[in-house]
């Protein structure tokens, strides 16, 4: 019988049973009796025929529920089973308890992920893969089948149905189950014992949760310290209690569709009203000052993790005070209220009571009651300006009830401000910039060159970000190394096979190197899937720990940009090691003292090398270190080196050890955000390279603030050329993996010919270029007749970027998004490019230079007048200072301490750049302070001069200054060709474009 026919038959049978039961009850109940009093007794103590009919009806209702119930309804039923004891038999409650226990068992052993989504497999295969007894798995699976979860299409074979498959495709559902079974239910069962123990205590550390978990810290503290618990709690709130989801983007976008309803209740459904790209979000934590006084709508978002009742009351009173001086303002309160008893359906009220009790058991908190809220707002004329937005608890649709909205103003961006988020619709990005200037405490007036980009929520560990990509692209390539053959790491893959990890997906044959690009058109590229990277990294992590390498120790890698670097990067994140990388060729060219200095500075516990020269040099130096000899790993398998170990030997030792790899992963998920993730070194252009200790929280902040850069369009085949010693290599690979894309590694560093070759052979989607590379690649593309249509995003940076560079990029990569991104070894992500959809001709420039963007959330940027010790005005150039969660706090060994300073706002970094901020908040970097030239007391930056000359001549130019004893500092421009222009022509063009103080250069040519 098909599902529709089954549904019709079940509904008809249920209807017939209900009609028969009602008729029988009326016969049993006298006409003059109170049916509300007698009906319960009749149903419980009636004749055998009635009891038989009642059982038939309950069975049909259960069948009907199984046919129409989705995962959310299942979770809410399980969560509310205690509340249903009075309405259901003890037997039903016991069955639901067993179902919850079975789901928890399936989740704990990752059994659901071992079952393919679209076909059945033998139960024996699944038990072997999950490492559980076959008989036990069979009993538990068949118990869940009684509730419509999983199915057994043939004896001994297991498959998903629609209900169980949802727990694989949406892992948050399984997180909700794990929280319900492992945290919420044990806490609920300890409620009585906690009351006996502590009676009326209301502290957050004296809860049933503390008693059940045997933890001394509060539930909120545990969530902050344990990302897995925080993730499970969020999922339980969303799917188990019907809580309004944190992500209100769609709801808030839909608000403008109701703007023509003024002073009238309105009911809206979400899907049809969304206008993409017109809404942005900012957050304001509850309890902080409300700085926006002229918003159209204030949205107070109350959830089950909101602060205590007193905090909510204080926030409401604060908003009421704001509205007294804002005649057009409105309050919209997202549902987080307890309804009055009996005013709504029992099932909906049960979920509201569930949220309230859960908050009590976990944190000694409660939800605000409707009467309390109305008493705060019970004043005219404010009451009519209040509305409640809620998520109907029995429907997947989003509703807006009794919301009073202001009419849309076509010439002014509407702003919605909430206790946790600010949402603005906008006509253009600059209007948003102007709003940001006054939206946060510490921001100065719009005339001053200092902007606070607002807060950035940064709580996920590095492994948590990698697991996002792992979940999206489990069986897809994570690494393609174009300079290594397909079978290069076959020994590592064979060793990883014994520790096959099936966290997601249903494919079993992962033991061979991926062949997605192998052999295609004769190419033989090493390709590793996310599964393979993760599996190898787990074995390597266990092997490192087995060799005595401890978390927080340092691993120094002296290897090129290849698959081994990618594997060790993932492994280091998993093992919580501090990563440092160096280029042996650069070290050798710098001088004989550089490598010994590096070893003394880092004191590494692990050294990884590839070439024989480095190995011999290391053998000479490590014995002189005051510490224990590091674990030395040699990645070249072709030649065994005494005292050195290979990656495959590390994996073998990890496989033989008793180290629990799952515990390694769990510890990495809860990584300390203050731990030092990496120590990379500056270029050393102004002296000896300085070590930059980047915290885990700094790296994740950097990734979050730059997540717009490598998005879903750019990540499929992101070309990564930088040597691992450069910060951009780490950031780009991590961003690509976070998005679930493929990092294409070329091995030789930044090389235009490698870019051309990669684009010719692979549909590359993301490319990074420096300005000199743009000139070179434009010639290569023209000569090679290269098709660049696959490229979706081109990042330009590393030097001053001119309007001409962007225009040339747009010509070479037609159809690609060309962006400017700013970053430093000391940290980056302080700017966001706002012109992704702006025509190239409309991007503003300053003296021919392009902006680096607007200030990103999580960063504060100021332009500083060092001579007068003040913040510059807009349009005035000065030193660029940044305060950001992504920046380092100091250099290693106390180097260059003056690069950092503290004021009342926090710790600032002097970047060494000269910059200017325009009236709209755009920041332009003019060049490095050390490159500044001085002519007659006027500071001149080379980049605008060079751009001006290149615009006239069409040739690359270099501006330099030379000191003369008789004439002082003289400016020179060096070109390949004057292109029929005289030096006088060039000086007149410069004077016209930049002013007289920048002219009077001496122009010359060179071969």
TrEMBL record:
Keywords: Ligase
GO BP: any one term: fatty acid metabolic process
InterPro entries: AMP-binding_CS (IPR020845), AMP-dep_synth/lig_dom (IPR000873), ANL_N_sf (IPR042099), SAM-dependent_MTases_sf (IPR029063), WH-like_DNA-bd_sf (IPR036388), WH_DNA-bd_sf (IPR036390)
PROSITE patterns, per database record: AMP_BINDING
CDD domains, alphabetized: AFD_class_I (cd04433)
Gene3D superfamilies from the UniProt entry: N-terminal domain of ligase-like, Vaccinia Virus protein VP39, Winged helix-like DNA-binding domain superfamily/Winged helix DNA-binding domain
Pfam families associated with the record: AMP-binding
GO molecular function: medium-chain fatty acid-CoA ligase activity
Keyword Ligase: yes
Span of domain AMP-dependent synthetase/ligase: 524-891
Key word Isomerase present: no
Top-level taxon of origin: Eukaryota
SUPFAM superfamilies on file: Acetyl-CoA synthetase-like, Winged helix' DNA-binding domain
Family membership noted in the UniProt record: Belongs to the ATP-dependent AMP-binding enzyme family.
Protein name (Swiss-Prot/TrEMBL): AMP-dependent synthetase/ligase domain-containing protein
Species assigned in the record: Metarhizium humberi
């Amino acid at each position: 019988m098909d599902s529709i026919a089954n549904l019709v038959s079940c509904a008809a049978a249920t209807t017939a049973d209900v009609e028969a039961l009602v008729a029988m009850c009326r016969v049993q109940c006298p006409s003059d009796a109170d049916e509300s009093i007698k009906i319960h007794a009749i149903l419980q103590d009636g004749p055998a025929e009635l009891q038989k009919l009642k059982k038939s009806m309950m069975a049909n209702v259960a069948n009907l529920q199984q046919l129409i119930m989705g995962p959310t309804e299942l979770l809410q039923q399980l969560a509310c089973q205690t509340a249903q004891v009075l309405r259901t038999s003890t037997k039903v409650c016991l069955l639901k308890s067993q179902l919850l226990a079975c789901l928890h068992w399936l989740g704990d052993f990752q059994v659901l992920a071992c079952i393919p989504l679209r076909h059945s497999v033998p139960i024996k295969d699944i038990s072997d893969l999950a490492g559980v007894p076959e008989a036990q798995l069979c009993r538990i699976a068949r118990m869940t089948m009684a509730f419509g979860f999983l199915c057994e299409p043939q004896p001994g074979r297991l498959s998903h149905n629609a209900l169980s498959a949802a727990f694989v495709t949406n892992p948050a559902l399984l997180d909700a189950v794990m929280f319900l079974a492992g945290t919420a239910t044990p806490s609920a069962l300890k409620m009585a014992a906690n009351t006996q123990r502590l009676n009326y205590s209301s502290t957050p550390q004296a809860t049933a949760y503390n008693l059940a978990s045997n933890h001394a810290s509060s539930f909120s503290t545990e969530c902050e310290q344990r990302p897995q618990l925080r993730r499970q709690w969020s999922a339980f709130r969303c799917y188990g209690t019907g809580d309004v989801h944190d992500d209100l983007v769609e709801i808030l976008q839909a608000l403008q569709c109701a703007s023509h309803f003024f002073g009238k209740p309105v009911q809206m459904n979400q899907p049809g009203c969304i206008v993409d790209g017109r809404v942005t979000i900012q957050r304001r934590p509850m309890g902080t000052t409300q700085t926006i006084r002229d918003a159209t709508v204030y949205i107070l978002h109350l959830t089950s993790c909101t602060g205590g009742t007193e905090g909510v009351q204080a926030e409401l009173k604060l908003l009421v005070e704001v509205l007294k001086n804002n005649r057009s303002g409105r309050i919209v309160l997202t549902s987080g209220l307890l309804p009055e008893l009996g005013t709504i359906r029992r099932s909906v009220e049960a979920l509201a009571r569930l949220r309230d009790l859960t908050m009590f058991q976990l944190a000694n908190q409660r939800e605000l009651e409707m009467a309390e809220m109305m008493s705060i707002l019970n004043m005219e004329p404010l009451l009519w300006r209040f509305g409640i937005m809620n998520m109907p608890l029995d429907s997947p649709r989003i509703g807006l009830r009794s919301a009073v909205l202001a009419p849309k103003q076509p010439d002014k961006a509407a702003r919605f401000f909430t206790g946790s988020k600010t949402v603005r619709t906008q006509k253009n990005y600059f209007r948003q910039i102007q709003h940001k200037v006054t939206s946060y405490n510490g921001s100065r007036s719009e005339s001053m060159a200092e902007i606070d980009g607002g807060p950035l929520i940064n709580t996920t560990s590095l492994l948590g970000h990698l697991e996002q990509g792992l979940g999206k692209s489990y069986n897809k390539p994570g690494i393609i190394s174009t300079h290594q053959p397909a079978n290069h790491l076959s020994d590592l893959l064979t060793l990883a096979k014994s520790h096959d990890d099936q966290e997601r997906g249903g494919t079993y044959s992962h033991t061979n190197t991926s062949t997605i690009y192998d052999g295609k058109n004769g190419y033989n590229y090493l390709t590793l899937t996310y599964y393979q990277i993760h599996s190898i990294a787990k074995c390597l992590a266990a092997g490192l720990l087995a060799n005595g390498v401890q978390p927080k120790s340092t691993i120094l890698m002296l290897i090129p940009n290849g698959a081994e670097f990618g594997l060790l990067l993932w492994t280091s994140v998993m093992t919580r090691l501090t990563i440092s990388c160096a280029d042996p060729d650069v070290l050798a060219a710098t001088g004989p003292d550089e490598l010994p200095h590096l070893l003394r500075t880092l004191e590494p516990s692990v050294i990884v090398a590839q070439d024989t020269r480095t190995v011999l040099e290391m053998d000479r130096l490590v014995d002189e270190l005051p510490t224990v000899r590091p674990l030395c790993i040699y990645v070249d398998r072709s030649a065994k080196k005494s005292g050195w170990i290979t990656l495959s030997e590390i994996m073998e030792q990890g496989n033989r050890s008793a180290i629990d790899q799952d515990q390694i992963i769990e510890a990495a998920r809860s990584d300390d955000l203050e731990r030092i993730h990496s120590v990379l070194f500056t270029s050393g252009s102004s002296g000896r390279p300085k070590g930059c200790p980047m915290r885990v929280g700094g790296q994740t902040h950097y990734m979050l603030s730059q997540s717009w850069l490598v998005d879903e369009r750019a990540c499929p085949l992101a070309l990564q050329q930088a040597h691992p010693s450069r910060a951009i290599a780490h950031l780009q690979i991590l961003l690509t993996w976070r998005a679930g894309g493929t990092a294409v590694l070329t091995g030789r560093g930044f090389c235009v010919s490698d870019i051309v070759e990669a684009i010719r052979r692979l549909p590359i989607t993301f490319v990074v270029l420096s300005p000199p590379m743009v000139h070179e690649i434009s010639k290569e593309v023209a000569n090679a007749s290269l098709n660049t249509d696959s490229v979706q995003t081109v990042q330009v940076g590393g030097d001053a970027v001119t309007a001409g560079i962007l225009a040339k990029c747009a010509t070479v990569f037609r159809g690609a998004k060309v962006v400017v991104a700013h970053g430093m070894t000391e940290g980056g992500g302080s700017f966001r490019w706002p012109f992704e959809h702006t025509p190239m001709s409309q991007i503003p420039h300053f003296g021919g230079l392009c902006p680096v963007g607007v200030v990103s959330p999580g960063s504060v940027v100021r332009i500083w007048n060092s001579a007068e010790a003040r913040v510059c005005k807009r349009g005035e150039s000065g030193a660029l200072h940044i305060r950001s969660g992504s920046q380092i706090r100091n250099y290693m060994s106390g180097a260059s301490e003056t690069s950092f300073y503290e004021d009342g706002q926090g710790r600032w970094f002097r970047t060494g750049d000269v910059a200017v901020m325009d009236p709209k908040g755009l920041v332009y970097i003019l060049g490095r302070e050390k490159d500044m030239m001085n002519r007659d007391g006027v500071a001149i930056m080379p980049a605008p001069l060079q751009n001006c000359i290149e615009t006239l001549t069409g040739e690359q130019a270099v501006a330099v200054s030379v000191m003369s004893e008789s004439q002082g500092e003289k400016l020179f421009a060096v070109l390949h060709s004057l292109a029929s222009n005289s030096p006088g022509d060039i000086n007149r063009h410069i004077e016209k474009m930049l002013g007289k103080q920048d002219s009077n250069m001496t122009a010359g040519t060179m071969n």
